[in-house]
Design a protein that fits this description.
Blueprint (H helix, E strand, L loop, with lengths): L1 H19 L5 H23 L3 H24 L9 H23 L13 H25 L5 H25 L2 H12 L1
Helix pairs in contact: 1-2, 2-3, 2-4, 3-4, 4-5, 5-6
Length: 190
């Protein structure tokens, strides 16, 4: 998680700097957010997965999404010209699928069978990832399908996207205190 948080901090710092200098940074976000951050999240979920066969499928899915991204970059959406929603879509669906797999493992007691789930940091992280990617796929899908939307709507929705991203990254940091927070709650309830 620290690697992902450090990477995102670097990405946002560079993105903010280039935006303040009116430098086109679409390629930065295409490469770093769609591909590198997705790889880090796939890697994270592979560390949580117990079944080696499923882990292999995670990386096969990531490789297929990258191959599609390459085809997309060469034919439909040039990587340095426009935000690549058509590359984000399979990556986001893969990440949401991995989150669903994680939830499935919890529900079927494959992991954490005798644990207070509120105290498990990875659950909070997965919930943050799920909500962010559902929102991001919806937002960018809408903007892709309706590129002539009003600037007020785009501005408001982009602010919502930033808020959701902030909540996701905040959940990453706070999740590691869930053991303490929910441990104290249980102690005082007893």
């Amino acid at each position: 998680m620290m690697i992902i948080l450090a990477f995102v901090f670097f990405l946002e710092a560079v993105g903010g700097y280039t935006a303040s200098r009116s430098i086109k940074n679409v390629m930065l976000y295409n490469v770093c957010w769609i591909y590198i951050e997705s790889l880090l999240i796939v890697w994270y979920f592979s560390l949580l997965e117990k079944n080696p066969k499923v882990k292999r499928y995670f990386f096969i899915g990531f490789g297929a999404a990258c191959l599609w991204g390459l085809i997309n970059s060469l034919t439909l959406q040039p990587i340095n010209e426009e935000f690549q929603y058509l590359s984000l879509l399979p990556m986001g669906l893969l990440i949401i699928g991995m989150a669903i797999r994680y939830y499935y493992s919890i529900i079927h007691l494959n992991i954490y069978p005798n644990t207070d789930l509120m105290r498990v940091p990875h659950i909070w992280i997965t919930v943050g990832i799920t909500f962010f990617y559902l929102e991001a796929l919806t937002l960018f899908g809408y903007l892709y399908l309706f590129p002539t939307s009003t600037s007020e709507l785009i501005f408001a929705w982009s602010k919502l996207n930033r808020i959701m991203a902030g909540i996701m990254y905040l959940s990453f940091g706070i999740s590691f205190y869930s053991e303490v927070i929910f441990g104290l709650r249980k102690k005082y309830q007893a």
